[in-house]
Amino acid sequence: MSIKKALLTILCTMCVAGVAVAQQPAKKSAKKGDNVCVADAKKFCSEVRPGGGRVYKCLTDHNSDLAPACRDR
What is the pLDDT of residues 44-54, one digit of tens each? Predict the structure, then answer.
């Protein structure tokens, strides 16, 4: 999966469930790797209002700072 698709998926999830998604612990039933960028989104983009691709743009602006697993996704 490309980083663009992964980040877009994260953005959509955050828009639907709200920013609180980034603050909730991962569910034990979640597949490995489902939440690889949530910590980075919270760390670098917590002040960004979800919607309109703003979180995705924020993450791509911080690409060199992202965790390797998030960058790979």
Answer: 999 999 999 99
- H runs (alpha helix) in the chain: 3-17, 38-45, 54-61, 68-72
Spell out the residues 6+ positions from residue 41 whose beta carbon is closer than 8 angstroms to its own: 10, 14, 22, 55, 58, 59
Nearest to 72 by CA among 12, 6, 13: 6
**DSSP tag of 22:** G
CA distance 60 to 43: 13
What is this structure's pTM? 0.52
Cβ-based neighbours of 65, under 8 Å, separated by 6 or more: 40, 44
